[in-house]
Each structure stands twice: as C-alpha cells, then as structure tokens.
C-alpha cells in the first residue's frame, strides 16, 4: 500500500511478469482507478511503435469532482536499443512516471506522486526509471540518451 492508501491490483504484477518473462508485451500503461483507490492496468500492448505509445500517454485524461484535465500515468516499456560502435542490441525495462506540469488537476497529480513507489516496489526487474513532466522528456531520443548511458 502506498502513502496515499492506494493499492496495486494483482493484474498490474501479472502483466508486468508477462512483459518481463514472455517478451510478448511491449508496454503497459497503468492508471489510478476512477475512485483513486487502486492502480490498475489501462493498456497492455504488443505494438512496437514508440509514437503510438507516446500518443496514448500524452492524450491521457484524469477527472476529479466533475473536472477533467491531463492525466498522469505510469508505464513500463520494454526499450530496445543498439549500443554505440555496433556492440549489439540491449533491452531495458523502463518505468515511466508521466505527470504533465500544465493542465493536470491537483488531486490526481498528488495522488499519482504519492502512489508511485507502491507500484515500483511491486514490479521486480525494472532496469531504469524516467520521470517525465514535459512532452520533450517523453521523446524516444531523450529517453534513449539517458538509459543508454545509465543516467536514469
């Protein structure tokens, strides 16, 4: 359980294990349930196109007390990249916490922030973490640069 009292559903862990062990899933997007009590799987996809994943994250919505804004999300992405100098291909399972600086309602943003560790702790085998608050921080090239040098 997180500091906010939010729990992680068993499906979150089982889908992550499918991604980690089976390699059939390319990414998982997690969200808070509508009543803000659980972290749930919003989408699990085999689609290898980064742009499709990025669009889903960037267009996410959250509502609270009848108001709607941009939606924070958590995601796990099986990131594959080539090492410099032709040394081969690497995979890293990257945990992404997306919480846009602008257009996000306060309650969803604060609940996501205080619940992140609960999800991260439940997912054993993460290779890197990215905190993204602006669209440029969730660009493929930005994340590749950081994770391929071990910065995140």
Give a verbal description of the structure.
The protein is of the alpha/beta class and 152 residues long. Helix content is 32%, strand content 32%. The chain has helices at 10-22, 50-58, 106-122, 140-148, and strands at 7-8, 27-32, 38-45, 61-64, 67-70, 73-82, 89-98, 128-132. The longest helix has 17 residues, at 106-122. The relative contact order is 0.19. The mean pLDDT is 90.
Helix and strand topology:
Elements: E1 7-8, H1 10-22, E2 27-32, E3 38-45, H2 50-58, E4 61-64, E5 67-70, E6 73-82, E7 89-98, H3 106-122, E8 128-132, H4 140-148
Parallel strand pairs: 1-3, 7-8
Antiparallel strand pairs: 2-3, 2-6, 4-5, 6-7
Ends apart, CA distance between termini: 25 Å
Q: Numbering strands along the chain, what is their spatial order in the largest sheet?
A: 1-3-2-6-7-8
Low-pLDDT windows of residues: none
Structural class: alpha/beta
Q: How would the global form be characterised? A: globular
Radius of gyration: 15 Å
Label this structure with key terms.
globular; six-stranded mixed beta sheet; alpha/beta; 152 residues; two-stranded antiparallel ribbon; 32% helix
Brief rundown of the structure:
This protein is of the alpha/beta class.
């Amino acid at each position: 359980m997180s500091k906010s009292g939010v729990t992680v559903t068993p499906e979150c862990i089982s889908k992550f294990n499918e991604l980690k062990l089976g390699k059939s899933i390319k990414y998982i997007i997690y969200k808070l349930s509508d009543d803000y009590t659980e972290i749930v799987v919003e989408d699990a996809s085999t689609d290898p196109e980064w742009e499709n994943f990025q669009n889903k994250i960037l267009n996410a919505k959250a509502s609270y007390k009848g108001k709607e804004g941009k939606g924070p999300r958590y995601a796990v992405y099986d990131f594959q990249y080539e090492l410099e100098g032709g040394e081969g291909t690497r995979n890293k399972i990257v945990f992404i916490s997306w919480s846009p600086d602008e257009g996000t309602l306060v309650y969803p943003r604060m609940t996501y922030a205080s619940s992140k560790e609960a999800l991260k702790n439940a997912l054993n085998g993460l290779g890197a973490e990215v905190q993204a608050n602006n669209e440029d921080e969730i660009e493929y090239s930005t994340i590749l640069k950081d994770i391929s040098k071990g910065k995140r």
